[in-house]
Amino acid sequence: MAAGHISSRVAQALANIPMKIPLQVLNRQCSSGIQACAVVFNAIKNGEYDIGIAGGVESMSTGDMGGIFDLEKASKNVLQNETATNCLLPMGVISDNICSEYKLNRQKLDQFSVDSHNKALKSLKEGWYKDEILPITVNIDGKDVVVDKDDGARETTLESLSKLKPSFNKNGLTTAGNSSQLTDGAAVVVLARRSVAKQLGLTILAKFSGFAVEGCKPELMGIGPIYAIPRLLKRLDLKVEDIDVWELNEAFASQCTFCVDYLKIPYEKVNPRGGAIAIGHPLGCTGARQVSTLISELKRTKKSKGVISMCIGTGMGAAALIELE
User: Fold this and answer.
1) Are the C-beta atoms of residues 297 and 170 closer than 8 Å to each other?
2) Which CATH superfamily is domain 74-177+206-324 in?
3) CA distances from 119 to 124, 151, 154, 270 (A)
4) What does the mean pLDDT of the chain come to?
5) Which residues pair with 56 in a beta bridge?
6) What is the C-alpha to C-alpha distance for residues 267 and 258, in angstroms, rounded to an integer?
7) Which of 37, 99, 216, 311 is catalytic?
8) In percent, how much of the chain has pLDDT > 90?
9) Who's near 249: CB < 8 A, 6+ residues apart?
10) Which are the contacts of 291, defined by CB distance < 8 A and separation ≥ 6?
11) Would you give the DSSP letter of residue 51?
12) Confidence (pTM)
């Protein structure tokens, strides 16, 4: 989980999980949620766990993303090393680096963003999201409010997005409209040894079949999936065409469209319920949220194999294969 150890232990207490149950906190930034799943998966394979809860949480509305990219506070040793300095580049600047390096098209980025919103709105209208979100009641200004769906998706058009000015560089292509939203969120996944799940009477929804991470240049951080996905598929003796649904995190339309095109993934298989441009990217939450979304979509479409992937700050990509039972 990308949140702190205290909030995680407090959440455990509030969930009435006994304090004798150990808790581990990790931070792999944008991939923290799926990395947590991989940690539990490997522990089960190694005989350390029989069952575990993996997930993540992030409050983007209260976190200070800007502070971690303050070059003025960096040491001279860091600033004298170009690669180390590039680890401090703001994500939006990196998005524009990708646009420049690979000569991306602003209209294509904006259209991808419009499509993300439209797919998310359709998911809401059709009620597809209902089996992936657990309603919770929160108190806002003394009034109980039930939160049971994502609320970032909105009606938008290519014309409206084209009017937005670049957010990071004067001549850049990255805008508020083709970037992921700042959203709060949390998600958890229960993973268990098959025999234990059957013994406890748990419904087995899917199988966590594999996980891979690979690094890339920090200044092009967003393209990480083009390295992680082939690594995963090769390890599992699969090809791109073998995958039915892709949950490829939309940190920015730039990096997401580039990865889709580079890997030759059919767009109709990518984020069929919309992605982070429409519903947000709470860093620690996203990977675990994608597991829920992917399983639900595989069930709805009666498909079997899905891949989750995302880029990771400082220059990495992660990918995981989920197979429906």
Assistant:
1) no
2) Thiolase/Chalcone synthase (3.40.47.10)
3) 9, 13, 10, 11
4) 94
5) 187
6) 11
7) 311
8) 89
9) 30, 180, 256, 275, 276, 281, 286, 290, 309, 310, 311
10) 33, 34, 37, 187, 189, 308, 320, 322
11) E
12) 0.94
Q: Are 287 and 131 in contact (CB under 8 A)?
A: no
Q: Reduce the secondary structure of 214-276 to three states and give it as a string.
A: EECCHHHHHHCHHHHHHHHHHHCCCCHHHCCEEEECCCEHHHHHHHHHHHCCCHHHECCCCCH
Report the distance separating Cα 90 and Cα 156, nearest Å: 26
In whole angstroms, give the CA distance from residue 160 to residue 245.
Answer: 29
The Cα 283–Cα 64 span in angstroms is 13
* In contact, 250 and 277? CB cutoff 8 Å: yes
Residue 261 has which token pair? 């095109």
Q: Which of 30, 99, 259, 285 is catalytic?
A: 30
What pLDDT does 1 receive?
Answer: 38
Active site residue 311: yes
Residues 6+ apart with CB under 8 A from 178: 109, 110, 112, 113, 161, 252, 253, 254, 277
- C-alpha distances (whole Å) from 228 to each of 57, 80, 235, 248, 282 are 23, 29, 11, 12, 21
Average pLDDT over residues 180-187: 93
CA atoms within 13 A on the CB side of 150: 36
Question: Which of these, 286, 292, 295, 289, lies nearest to 313 by C-alpha position?
Answer: 286
Stronger pLDDT, 24 or 4, i.e. the higher one: 24
Rounded Cα gap, residues 64 and 138, in angstroms = 24
99 is catalytic: no
